[in-house]
Amino acid sequence: MDLLKILDSVLVAVLWCFCAVMLADLALHIWRARPRYIHLRLFMLMLAVVLFVLVIPVGTVGLLFFWELVGGKVPILF
Q1: Under a CB-based contact definition with an 8 Å cutoff, are residues 13 and 75 in contact?
Q2: Which stretches are transmembrane (predicted)?
Q3: Which member of 9, 26, 39, 43 has the greatest number of CB atoms within 10 A?
């Protein structure tokens, strides 16, 4: 069970890091974008922010709920 907690924490940390890198990359593209493509890039950045702010924390809460559902103690993720 301890190995699953470690893998769970690593998975969540990797997802957070991936989303942070994605946001930084999109911000860099927006900085260098041509004016005609700025609206599409702003929309992509908005989707990345929604993913970073909404989806990953909801997934983290879902993982915590899963741990309680299977009868384990709630792992300390961060």
Answers
A1: no
A2: 6-30, 42-67
A3: 26
